[in-house]
Predict the structure.
Amino acid sequence: MKKYLRVFAALFKACAIAQFEFRLNFIVKLAADLIWYMTQLSIFEVLFHHTRSISGWTLESTRVFMGILFLVDALWMMLFSENLDRMSDKIRRGDLDLLLVKPINSQFMMSLKVMDPAYIVNISLITGWLIWALTQLPEPVVWSRLLLLLITIPCGLIITYSIRFLFSASALIFTRAENINYVWYNFYRLATRPDTIYPAWLRYTVLTFLPLGFVASVPARLILETPDLVLLAAAVFAASLSLYISHRFWNFGLRFYSSASS
Amino acid sequence: MNSYENVIETVDLTRVFLTYRKAEGIWNSIRGFWHREYVRKVALQPTTLRIEGGEIIGLVGANGAGKTTLLKLLSGLIHPSGGDARVLGYRPWERKPDFLRRISILLGQKNQLWWDIPPADSYDLLARIYDLDEKEARNRVTELAELLQCRDLLHVQLRRLSLGERMKMEIIGSLLHRPSVLFLDEPTIGLDIVAQTNIREFLAEYVKRERPTIILTSHYMDDISKLSDRLLLISKGAIVYDGTVPDFMNSVEHVQRLTAVLERPPESPRELASGLVLSPGTEMFTAELPATQIAPTLQKLMEISPLKDLKIEEADFEDVIRKFLEKESRLRATGGPIAT
Amino acid sequence: METTIWSAIVTSTGQESFGGFPRESYIAYALWGAFFGRIGSNWMYEYRMIEEIETGSVNGVLVRPISFFEYYLSQFMGYKLLTTFISFLVPIFITLTVANGPTIHARLPLACAVLILYLFLVHTISFSVATLSFFLTRVHGFTVAKNIGLTILTGELFPLDLVPEPYRTWLLWLPFSNSVFVPVGYLTGRLGIEDVARGVLSIFMGLAFFGMIAAVAWRAGCRRYSGTGA
């Protein structure tokens, strides 16, 4: 365990150093991200001009929701995005082989090989926004509830990771999986809106089989309302289960890969 | 590193895989949707090998002959279809961490080092992955870099280095943890002559110092002839020769190259002892002939004209191997894919 | 996906209409909006233009009889027209059968005409962005940022008439609204012919503006390019 922490720290540091090279790139990317955040937020700003609430969410509570969503997204972009998006490519080209001969877990390396520490800037900005949004709530926020975020945000991140990983890792078995990215993106959109707006069957799905509701909806609710411990436990359970499944699938895929390639 | 008995041992190690026959034409493509005709390809015929510690094996063969398959089997990247193999006492495909810590693989065209950071930082990462002591690892890097004459490049980002320099860095990366067994797949491919020679010299020196077991594949015969103790020729998945390089040279037909420059080129076609015909006007004559034919051919040439220049050379190692492999594959023409 | 979300949003407000229009209107808008939006965006050809300038193969283009601009325009338009015809079959089919809502099919030709006119502007803007490659490396980020920003300005994310004043008027005068909001709004009955006329006018203004920028940037770029030599 300690070894993995050390490797992670070294990877992070190395990627950070590499990034200082591309300053203009960083600024442009940050600008693109900011524009994206603003467009997403403006949707709701405009919508709430015409109604007081959408399925129990008000403008203020939706802002909190979006803040949490952006936070998980930024963490995702920082740690995993680059690796998982390129994974099927790498597998196809045989880059996986070089990782397999090393005495370290290949899933770990595949997922974290290239990180983007610049997102720390995004994370700081988003955290600022989130705190502002919390102060705007009509009822004073119970600040101690924010501690729950320390649990729920990692859970949301792990769930996103695991599901995405399952999609990407299918490249071990189906070599021609170009549309996977597109399918994933559409699934992920389910996480970007509060779960209560969905019809019952869909809402049930995003809280069970495809636990994307735990990415932002559940964490937001846990802060805004009295914390429902069952929900909290469900989040942790969903995260652990999905991670476990991704791990098993990876091993299965590797066995397939080793038997099928030449 | 101590040498000990049979570092690598295989018994009837086989590798077969299924691909489907690609359909020709529209009709068959549509039919292929339901009914895939699977073709059984033998990548590696049942192979039994014994390799001792400290040996350097040169593995030579045409593309697709099975070199990479053998390498991948022995390094644990793929599972065999049959037979067994043990490297350092482990079964490679079980991929036990202790096994992985003692082997290393270098794939000629792929980078294992990180692209955007200097090699020195990559090595720090590798040190952590292999649980090496940091200080010791750094000393090792310095030591290897000195031997490879690239010490001043350690802190330049990998993507800024030339191909030859990158390959040197990759080599250092693969030797960082003092592997007992080293698999080198085309280490000098695509490099210029200077880089190739550097690396070859380095490997020769390294081998003398550390005595690892190496399996080396290459298309450059100089790599093989100058570094290997033992030569394995592989053709269509089977080992067709296993012995030393000098023995190989002796066992095949001794061929030499004759180059002669004539003072008076002939005016009409003239037949030579070896059955070759000398065309009119030829001033410089070159031919590869079995050693026994050199003298008679030379005599005939001298009857035609006095010679201005004469050269007799040993045939290229590369040519010899090529001819040998061609002959072997002709003999094995029946060993192709079998439809199931 | 979008339709589910819109449907949910409107039902959840508990009102029959939202911003003055019923639920079906939004579903139709979302459906058509997705298609119009995709046609009206330019990723691939912008990247190609950027790449060609970046890698310096512009030399080959500069020598050609037709200009760089025209060459890519023809490629771009050809591709878009073809994909438009094919992909529009889907929403046409759906709105004729399953979701027989407020779509006024007779208006489809004019709506498409607006979109096609808009594509000329798209190309001009893409061209301008591509000329940045003369001066900067790694221009891709600009494409990404621009296209993200456009999702709002075109009306792809939501109908622009929901936006409160004074922003609404600004947005409607920007030419970008002609990618989705104007044609789809007209098609689903939110807008009338006057709005279309205004839209067309704004496209021409946009063409003039960006055309000028494109011409200036191109000339400056070429001068710089041949200055450094390649």
About this structure: Residues 2-260 of chain A form one domain. Chain A has a mean pLDDT of 83. Chain A has one domain: 2-260. Residues 137 and 239 of chain A are 29 Å apart (CA to CA).
